[in-house]
Amino acid sequence: MKPAVFDYVRAESVAHAAEVLAGAGGDGKVIAGGQSLMPMMNFRLVKPSVLVDINAIAGLDRVELVGSRIRVGALVRHFMTARDPLIAQRAPVVTAAMKHVAHLTVRNRGTFCGSVCHADPAAEMPMMTVMLDGEIHAVSTRGKRMIPINEFFAGSLVTSLEPDEVVTAIDLATMPPNMGFGFHEFARRHGDYALAAVAVLMRRENGRPRDVRIAVMGLGEMPSRIPTAETVIEGNELSDLTIARAVESLRAAVSPNTDLHASADYRRHLAGALAKRAIGDAWLRAREAEPA
Ligand SMILES: Cc1cc2nc3c(=O)[nH]c(=O)nc-3n(C[C@H](O)[C@H](O)[C@H](O)COP(=O)(O)OP(=O)(O)OC[C@H]3O[C@@H](n4cnc5c(N)ncnc54)[C@H](O)[C@@H]3O)c2cc1C
């Protein structure tokens, strides 16, 4: 299909983009990479009256360290995120997750921030933003605001972003050097959307796991942390029994869907298998990185 008729504006600045969105009366859409928006428009699932293209705005294509956080600009593409040395050093779990994202053409155009704004529950970048306490920087003609990630996702493809707001960047927490990580996902073909994925972070202190974080995607309406599974591991000896109990809590906490690709039961089973591997990898890396 072809999209419904729309106007197109190439924004010259963030203020210009915000003005055009404000003038669209809630009916405008930002286009960044277009890798999700264009298919949605072609299927007429969305019919914006105006597209605001942010690709010509200078300065939005940077990854930088701001204080202790990594700032990912709104025009940072997937391939840039995957190769960025700062991300590889300070948030290597993101680099690991990016290896699984899509195919070459999508990676060349799609943006980290666009993926988070699109809010697909089976996408890697929203999950990483949940895992690393992301903060979304939004601008409108009413001013700037920062949205903590726990107030951002409201459901599958639904966020708390107002229709007149443009996202300029997303900040992510950096990981301490002794933080181990694990990331495992399963997709039917490499580069396809995953059926499920699990990411784990932990440090090792006096032989015990600390600061444990476990996040999942593809297992509910939005990516989420699983505090019940984190608590099972936090501060306890990481025996096979502890891992089995954490896996059980994770399986109990997720609410996967049945669809064309897999049943809810299969996804729940998969979640446990992926969690076991991710916990194992995170612990191994944490042991290797533990200060002497
Ligand atoms: C074949 C295929 C396979 C894919 N596989 C994967 C995969 O394995 N993993 C994965 O994570 N993703 C996958 N994707 C999705 C891809 O990563 C998209 O690029 C991403 O979801 C959206 O980023 P974008 O920059 O293209 O956003 P766009 O398509 O331009 O926009 C998406 C939405 O976000 C909004 N938006 C974008 N930028 C902003 C902004 N700065 N401010 C406010 N709103 C904004 C738009 O208005 C729109 O609603 C796949 C896509 C395709 C087509």
Q: If you compute it from the alpha carbons, what radius of gyration comes out, rounded to the nearest whole angstrom?
A: 19 Å
Helical stretch tally: 11
> What would you call the shape?
globular
Spatial gap, N to C terminus: 61 Å
Task: Specify the structural class.
Answer: alpha+beta
- Say how many strands there are: 14
Task: Work out the strand percent.
Answer: 25-35%
Order of helices and strands: EHEHEEEHHHHHHEEEEEEEEEHHH
Strand order in the sheet with the most strands: 4-5-10-6-7
Which oligomeric form is depicted?
single chain
Mean pLDDT: 96
Poorly predicted segments: none
Q: Estimate the helix proportion, in percent.
A: 25-40%
Which sheet architecture does the biggest sheet show? 5 strands, antiparallel
User: Which small molecules are bound?
Assistant: flavin-adenine dinucleotide
Considering the chains and any ligands shown, give keywords for the structure.
single chain; 292 residues; alpha+beta; 5-stranded antiparallel beta sheet; 4-stranded antiparallel beta sheet; 11 helices; 35% helix; 26% strand; binds flavin-adenine dinucleotide
